[in-house]
Write a structure and sequence with these properties.
This protein has 103 residues and is mainly alpha-helical. The protein has three helices and no strands. It has one domain.
């Protein structure tokens, strides 16, 4: 029972890391496209988001493959949540038929 509660906490940490990563990406795109220097926004955001995510996964997983799997499942779920909340890329008003998106 204790191990199940621990894994639930690991899963929630994965969801939180995913929300920070993908929510930060969404925020960066919105801010970066309106900025005079978008490269600084995109590069700076990438460094911060990757550092936070990898550091968090490293701390939460604790060198156990089971915990790593659970935290990554939470991270993956957060991606789906952020996509649902922000809308799919194909729903963009300027996306014409020539625009292709990766799955």
């Amino acid at each position: 029972m204790i191990e199940l509660l621990n894994l639930a906490g690991v899963w929630l940490a994965g969801v939180a890391l995913g929300l920070v990563f993908f929510g930060g990406l969404w925020w960066t795109v919105r801010r970066g496209m309106a900025s005079r220097q978008p490269a600084l926004w995109f590069i700076g955001s990438l460094v911060v988001r990757v550092a936070l995510t990898l550091g968090g996964i490293y701390l939460v997983a604790g060198a156990q493959w089971q915990r790593l799997l659970v935290v990554l499942l939470g991270f993956w779920l957060a991606r789906a949540v952020v996509l649902r909340l922000t809308g799919s890329p194909s729903a963009a008003p300027d996306a014409g038929p020539e625009v292709r998106h990766a799955p």
